[in-house]
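Thread: "does anyone have the structure for this chain?"

Original post by V.I.:
We have the sequence but no experimental structure in hand. Need at least a predicted one for the grant figures.
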Amino acid sequence: MSSRRKVGRAEIRTDGWGSLSDRTQHVVCLLVLLAVSLGFFAPIHFGGLSIVAGDTVSWRAMAQAQIEYEEETGEQALWAPNAFSGMPAYTISYDPPVPQADDIATLLRSFLWPTSHFIFLLVGVYLVIVLLTGSKLGGVLAACAYGLTTYIPILLIAGHNTKFIALCYAPWVVLAFAFALRRPGPLSGLLFAAALALNLRAGHIQITYYLAFLLGIWWIVEAVGAVRHGRLKSFGTATIWMALGAALGVLMVAQPYMLLQEYRKFSTRGGAGVEGAAGLGWTYAMNWSQGIGELITLLIADAYGGSALYWGAKPFTAGPHYVGGVVILLAVLALWRVRHNAVWGIGIAAFVMILFALGENFPLLNRPMYEYFPLFSSFRVPETWLSLVSLALALLAAFGLSYLAQPEKTAEQEVQKTKSAFIVVGAVAGVVLLLFVMRGAFFEFERPGEIEQVREIVAQQLKQSPDSPQVTSIARQVYQEQRINPREEAFTGDAIRTMVFLLLAGGLIFLFRRGVIPSSVMQGGLALLVLIDLWGVDRRYFNADLLVPSSSLESNIPMYDFDQFLLQQQREAGGPGHFRVLSFEGNPMVNARPSYYYESLGGYSAAKIGLYQQFVDNVLFDPETSLPNEQALDLLNTRYIVAPGVLPDTRVVYESQIAAPGAANQNPQRIFVLENPDATPRAYLVGRTEVIATPEETWVRMSSPDFNPLETAILPEPIDFEPVAADSLGAGTVTLQSYTPDEIVWQVETDAPRLLVASEIYYPAGWKAFIDGEEAPIYRVNYLLRAVPVPEGQHTVTMRFDPPTERLSFWLSALSTLLVYGGIVALAGLAFVQRRRKQERYEGNGA
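Reply from O.Q.:
Generated one for you, tokens below.
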């Protein structure tokens, strides 16, 4: 059944959707969202395929030592010995032992990834819109708009799972924020705490930090509105409860964030030396700044060539941040016509975040923020801001849809609404049409330096100078045909595509405003257009061709025959803790594969220990030859080197062949396992010390051929211990008794007081030493290693990684989680009882 109501010259139709109960409408909408998730990820859920991304495989390789230890002991390892010569394991993988709501998604993950988390994203956005506007169909549109924005599936293909999960939980923080503003009280504060903790436990604090800007700007707008309309008491109450909730939320994630914050001081993210607070360098932090012109990809997907034909200023890209013409149309309409604090707050936040996304391309704002705003310099890839811009635009689009669907009080207002809608449709379509017609004036479709590369290739083929007229002419023709033309065609195709969706959206709005179709058809039709539009673009970047047959992550970590050789050497040496390996299969500092099998000097991490990174940059590799420094290899107990060639002062102990990177198996690459006979033992006694205060002088001394680490240890400052030089290197013995990630035990015998130097990375925030059960100091020697002063005689020396912060953070997380979830249950239960009593009294009075 449908009905009509006359408003001015327009006849607005309604239908049976409104006659359904709220519960039924919610069930229908949520089932649609579930179907969207299952349908989009159907190749995974029903096609026997899975996502195997390089970053995910690298994570699995880095975490192997932790996983093995937990399988053997039932306990989590806190130190990872196989990566970068050792680093805190909680920077790689850490499962907080305190359960919270995200454990539900974690349970589902084993058989329903990525819907296990993606459904949280869709439902979260849906509930935000239902709370703010009451529009259930608007909630479906916004959920599809944000969930299928191109960046989300691109993250999955790239293996950026923590970022994906953080973005899935972001709408729940927005929901709790909006709920607290509207219903201030203890319950809203506790819900905000739970939602914030949920997002933080995803493990990608950059997203939480960016989300805080969105909510902070929205809060400022609400504060201004509260002052103007005399609602300061209610707003102040909401703010207080949210502040308390934020504090509780942070306490709920004390584990592992207290450990991570402690690590930050010693990492490349917080300081380059032993401690510091420098953050990332400007150039590194601003990598992948969004180009000003590239913002058009929000509207025209492959305007900058997508991924394969990308011609923007970023080093490369996996795809655009596309939200689509329909979403932008509705968002613009909301910003123009909807008088709502949430719209203004979200709109201003979206604008500011777009400016942040420009990074180095808008230094007027971003340089001062980088220099002075807390933590702003700790994050890189400014285009990541656009992931939250997509959320903001999706929410604004739902406001625009709600504005179109809701009736006005007068005929004049209805007429004005109709005019406004078509002005916006015309304006957005006009922009697309202008860009399409004037594309030659606005876009060059050329990537800086690309034509020179083509000219060099042509010159080599013709055996002529790159500057010859013939080479220049042919290079320009080839470049035009293979690059310029395909890019222009991609732009043209997507501009037309966006125009078609805008015209279809305009048609639905026209039919509704003329009374031809009911409101639910218009809303559902626009939501369907958003779904079809984004689904189609997403399939360019997420499709069956990019997936692989379902398999475990570890099955994608190849084992070569030289790995078996090295593992055999490890077994013969007595197991882990006897030597390290430096592998030159590729760049060892971004290759995690060797860490899966044995203790490696390399790995894959964006936040290495600062001392280690400085050692790599200044000592490990010769800046002139790029070859490893023999002294540095010796210091790090590097017994074996895997390389495609023979290095000086090494001997070949094994020869193998592997497929060359990017080549077929018929073009194998020769690989040699080289033994470094001069590698120091993992632990040894030293009788002499030198004090060198500056890092630069220390690096020079360590690289010097006349520096013998078996005789002398370099200290950054004097210590209260005088070792005695031995007459020979046989004046003491060090025997490894046991070696696990978190504990190392040696039996030491020495005829005089000496320093026990361990080729283990110095990290004072947790490593402790004990001599015969009594705690002893650990000193930093040779810039990045540990040393313990050992008295004369026979002793048991133990190094144990047991950060006090880990125990404190556990209890803070446990108690605050119990308080928050217990409080939510108690307050919700109390509210339920009060409603029942009120209803019973009402029914009794009625009787």
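V.I.: this helps a lot. Residues 1-12, 272-277 have pLDDT under 50 and may be disordered.
O.Q.: and The radius of gyration is 31 Å.
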